Write the structure tokens for this entry.
Amino acid sequence: MRWLFSLAVNSAALIAADWLLRGIYISGVLSAVIAALVLGAVNTLIRPVLLVVTFPLTAITLGLFIFVINAVTFGLAAFLVPGFHVYSFGGAFWGAIITSLVSWVLNGLVNDHD
């Protein structure tokens, strides 16, 4: 049941990014849900490989290259999901940041603090 809530929060975060940015377009709620699923899979399977491969560059940039990796994974998810479009690297960059922040805030507001 918890994963369903997480899926809903991430879908809402993607819709918020669509609403806030011109560089992102999501055609509907179903596309947002599928995009949240694919983004979760990409972040689980591909992002760790990218982090290991680009570790020297990440170390040289003091961790700032991770923002680029986040944008790449966001753009990859958009490439894989019909109805989810990212029109530029800037859209992917800011979309990844906004999606992360909105998801973090919504999870913080709703999760019970034990």
